[in-house]
Amino acid sequence: MHLKLFSDKEHIYRKSKIEQTSVSYNKIILKNSLILYVRLFITSIIGLVSVRFILTALGASDYGLYSVIGGIVFMMAFLNNVMISSTYRFVAYELGTGNTDGVNKVFNISLVFHIILAVLTGLLAETVGIFYIKKYLNIPTDKLIDALFVFRMSIIATILSIFSIPYQGLITAKEKFTIIATMEVIRSILGLCVVLFLFYYSGNKLRLYAFLITIISVIPPAIYYLYCKWNYRKLVKWQFQRDKKKYNEIIGFSGWVLLGASANAAETKISEIIINLFFGTLINAGFAISSNINNVIKNFAESLNKAVIPQITKSYSSGNPSRTIDLVIFSSKYSFFLMLLTAAPLLLETKYVLELWLKEVPPNTVIFVQLMIINTMIEVMNAGVPAAVHATGKIKHYQIVLGTIKLLASPAAYFLLKTGHESYTIIIAFTVSAVINLVVQQIILKKLIQFNIKEFIMRAYVKMLYVLFPITSLFFIQHMFKPGIYRFVGFSAVSVLFTIVMVYAVGISNSERDSVRYFITNKFIKK
Asked: Pick from 4, 32, 80, 504: CA 20 to 30 A from residue 459's CA?
């Protein structure tokens, strides 16, 4: 009797400790999400303003030249994102197990990789890159020296960024998003200051801009390095590692992540090529504008996911599968709600917004925007699943299967367009592949961990549909009102408020609703 009583008390104590830990981790996720949203809002506004000013300051010709040369930076940024995700996955995994030596090992192996990558980038840039610019780049002869200068400045910035990836990955795994967000905001503000300074400079503005942007790009890597040296001295202490198995594990993981990321990037690039082949540059313009709008909205949903990913990895590595599944459901459900919150106003008034923003709206832009947003909303329904798969480290088949399904949409779209279908059919083809991947992702995750698909559908998908269906009524009601600024403002406000109300009423669980009430009572009412 006494043993049973002791056992029950011990069980209750452990359960209480787990719940307290979960609440603490949820607060960290909430805090980091807010930080990332503030960063996103500030950098997006500054970015939009900067583009307008830099176009005026440099002129169309020099701005075009900088954009073309800057393409190499875009490609390297794409690679950097892959490497950062690989680095913080392994660091977060070791942190979850509480293995400090393991964190140091992973960090040093990652550092070796990035030193090699930086050296190779510099060598390729000074050989293949310079050769391509001199022989094949379509620029005026008198702009060749400027092009080479801009290119070398861009490569310096890229190499510095590569060196900083292990440190940035460690900071991300430690969930110190304040540091990263602050650096990005500072860089955006300084970039805007550089653009404004160009209006008062009478010399070669293109060279000055490239030089100053490179100087600014030195700041974040330096801060990341100093922060890690100061706060995580033991974790970043240099020790050359000879663990070939771990080298191969990280290389293999990074390679498969790169494959998946390449498939996602190819979706847009191949679409642009196919559209250009059948319809020309005018429709390409509409597609490009739509992609930019979709990316902005998508970033709002992904900011939450970025805050949750380290927690998913740590929960899995610490042997807490129930917490891992809860976070997968949490990330998927709330990413969808956040996407819906920002997407609903635009879907309701797509035509009006585009006409308000652009002087001339390219053909099919409205339908492009709407279909892209719908496609992204479908993908976001499984937002937490990839992080859980990555946490296991067994991503080979996952990346091959999902990437293949995504890429098969391209030949399907080509065939449809060849038979006379409209240009937006290509987005429909990718939307079908997104629906298929929703199912495939869950099947693969079920094979890797104790993932209950039925539970996921009931706790995530059903809640999403409960919120989504009532909001669709707004699309029928809006036609009763005359298009214009009043309808736009009115229905935008109504859609946002309606979404929030429906999420609270039917989109969240009772425990989550209690947490919201507790938060509001303690933070606002008692004051």
From this structure: 32
